[in-house]
Amino acid sequence: TRKRPLVVLTRKLPDPVETRMRELFDARLNIDDHPMTEGDLAAALREADVLVPTITDKIDAALLQQAGPQLKLIANFGNGVDRIDVAAAAARGITVTNTPNVLTEDTADMTMALILAVPRRLAEGANVLPDGPKWSGWSPTWMLGRRIGGKRLGIVGMGRIGAAVARRAKAFGLSIHYHNRHRAAAQLEDELEATYWESLDQMLARMDIISVNCPSTPATFHLLSARRLALMQPSATIVNTARGDIIDEDALIKLLADNKLAGAGLDVFTNEPAVNPKLVKLAAKGKVVLLPHMSSATIEGRIDMGEKVIVNIRAFIDGHRPPDRVLPNKV
Ligand code: 8YV
């Protein structure tokens, strides 16, 4: 019988996923879930037939040089492949796959939660009662936020997640606007009653809420630059559940601190897991809601992601085209 492929998991995955991996492959698990050091990763690349990394692993061209000739597949446990140099992998004959679709709805739910939470001051309000004495009682002018219904939502990146956010937002009475490299299909525009803005600058200037839903690529690095962020209205809020580096975080912090922007809801940051202390201060003041990169974090979603990884590995090993192959020119 053929030797089972050595599949190295860089992090602990849900039990059912690991059980299945062990049934199918020679799976090397990370039982105590320690984040991999660069040395661990290099060792894994030297030995593995298949590597299953997560967002906590940076797999750049230099690291890939240490990969052994047996490594043929990097099956990412996650949608975004911004931490993997897909072109460098391709140059070495290594295929990269990801886990799209299964985390779309969960991520959109959390994005919607932030779209509601920031203008309606949910995090501030949720802190009042645990702090007991802070509540002096109801008052007509206390804890006033901004209405959601009737406002304009501008989505930056109308892909699967952007569309799922738009569907939710539409049900809350927001009008849908979007900017994307390419205009969306007429059918989707009709369904969402969405307005396409070819100019991101013009859209930013006119929106009440902006939601960032595009991937992180060289083309989207600081897409929301200092200049562009300054185009937003002082009453506007911005939500990011995509990747931290799409927004110029320092510029965002400055605008928030200067009250030139009303608020922000951030699930992703420039230097994860480090978070700029200025953002923490703004959170204490109720200007921003900060989440620890948890928009796709559901029990069901993580199992679905694991199953997708397995489907991709099996297809690849059986000599088929894995369904979720990431092409270098698509990154
Ligand atoms: C995960 C994500 O947190 O899929 C993504 O792109 O950001 C999240 O689902 C992570 O990437 C898992 O590796």
From TrEMBL:
Show where the D-isomer specific 2-hydroxyacid dehydrogenase NAD-binding domain sits.
112-295
The D-isomer specific 2-hydroxyacid dehydrogenase catalytic domain sits at: 16-326
This protein's record includes keyword Repeat: no
Keywords in alphabetical order:
Oxidoreductase
- What CDD domains is this protein classified in? GDH
Q: Which Pfam families does this entry report, sorted A to Z?
A: 2-Hacid_dh, 2-Hacid_dh_C
Transmembrane spans: none
Among PROSITE patterns, the record links this protein to: D_2_HYDROXYACID_DH_1 (PS00065)
- Alphabetical list of InterPro entries matching this protein: D-isomer_2-hydroxyacid_DH (IPR050223), D-isomer_2_OHA_DH_cat_dom (IPR006139), D-isomer_DH_CS1 (IPR029752), D-isomer_DH_NAD-bd (IPR006140), NAD(P)-bd_dom_sf (IPR036291)
- What highest taxon heads this organism's lineage? Bacteria
What family classification does the UniProt entry report for this protein? Belongs to the D-isomer specific 2-hydroxyacid dehydrogenase family.
Q: What is this protein called?
A: D-glycerate dehydrogenase
